[in-house]
Amino acid sequence: MKKKTIIIIHLVYWSRLLFSIIPLVSFQLKSSTSDLYTLSLLWSRFIFQLVPLFSFYVAYCFLFPTYFTRKKYLTFGALAVLTTLFTLLIGELFIVPFKREFGDILSSQDKHNAILYPLKLRLLNMMSMTISAIISGSLLKALILWFNERKIKETLEKKNLQTELALLRAQINPHFLFNTLNNIDILIEKSPAKASEYLKKLSDIMRFTIYDASAEKILLSQELEYISKYIDLQRIRSSASGFVKLEVTGDPGNLQIAPMLFIPFIENAFKHSTNKKQENAINIIIRIIGEEIYFSCNNVLDKIPGLEKTKGGAGLDIIKNRLTLIYPDHILHMEKTESKYIVSLSIKLNEN
Q: Which residues does the UniProt record annotate as the domain Signal transduction histidine kinase internal region (predicted)?
């Protein structure tokens, strides 16, 4: 939803207070009632409509997006109750001094003024306004989040063909494919058995990319197998046994994951680590804990002219969009230093 639209919605909500005050001002100009009486009415409207706006924005900006959307309903409810109590306290802090100073005068002119209500009735009145504000703030935030998510989905659907093509090109980097075939060709004379093994791995990668990766979800074990074979093929080009290290812990079991989420970061690591004789140039760690997966990849950065100007390997922007859409609660952190590029990603695989 556009920011301009959101601002207009908020202005409409705020206008409730303005339109509740205008009739009172008009009434004062046309009548002979005292200024104090009109002031009390204005003050009453101010307290019982403006003060609950505090709870509206607490729910809108904090409670709903932080807790309700993450299914922490008990925490949301508890904090909503605390917000309501705090709002009631603020309201009383405004009312009590005014009532103490002018209560006697007002009671002689209008016994039905909300400021003069007994404490219990006054709190019930304020509580109903506050609860209404919390519900309104939560519903508005839910509407905006739903609209934004729908907009993202529509955008991705419109670009589906282009995205699929971009993914296919990104998944198998042409340079990687060319170099792998060239290295296998050299191995054919030196070690036919090893060449055949690598050729099979390349065939498996191509099959996975073209067929398996088109599915919405695949087994996590398939994704890990693909990553392992990809790294094995990259190792052909390095004379250092410890050029790249892959550590996988945990049992993937029957867990499923959206395909091709990690490989773009791994491709990018190989792209920027051009010194194939260096030890510990790339370190990849994948940990599976329950239904959560933690991925980290750090690599050295080679300072090669022109390399920084090229686009990120394997469509990193596309992967970010996919993560936002499929795993909205994911945590992605990318950090670049003088000599290192570090990526960490955590995903809850049971997200709907």
A: 164-238
- In the block, tokens 């419109």 appear at 158
Secondary structure of the chain in the HEC alphabet?
Answer: CCHHHHHHHHHHHHHHHHHHHHHHHHHHHHCCCCHHHHHHHHHHHHHHHHHHHHHHHHHHHHHHHHHHCCCCHHHHHHHHHHHHHHHHHHHHHHHHHHHHHHHHHHHCCCCCCHHHCCHHHHHHHHHHHHHHHHHHHHHHHHHHHHHHHHHHHHHHHHCHHHHHHHHHHHHCCHHHHHHHHHHHHHHHHHCHHHHHHHHHHHHHHHHHHHCHHHCCCEEHHHHHHHHHHHHHHHHCCCCCCCCEEEEEECCCCCCEECCCCCHHHHHHHHHHCCCCCCCCCEEEEEEEECCEEEEEEEEECCCCCCCCCCCCCCCHHHHHHHHHHHCCCCEEEEEECCCEEEEEEEEECCCC
pLDDT digits (tens, 9 = 90+) for 140-157: 999 988 888 888 877 766
- Look up residue 233 and give its two tokens: 């093929």
Contacts of 154 (CB under 8 A, 6+ apart): none
Percent of the chain with pLDDT over 90: 28
Checking if the pLDDT of 28 tops 70, the result is no
Round to whole Å and give the CA distance between 141 and 262.
32
Domains and CATH numbers, the chain: 3-158 (no CATH), 160-348 (3.30.565.10)
Distance CA 73, CA 104 (A): 45
In the structure, what pLDDT confidence band is assigned to residue 311 with cuts at 50, 70 and 90? very low
pTM above 0.70, yes or no: no
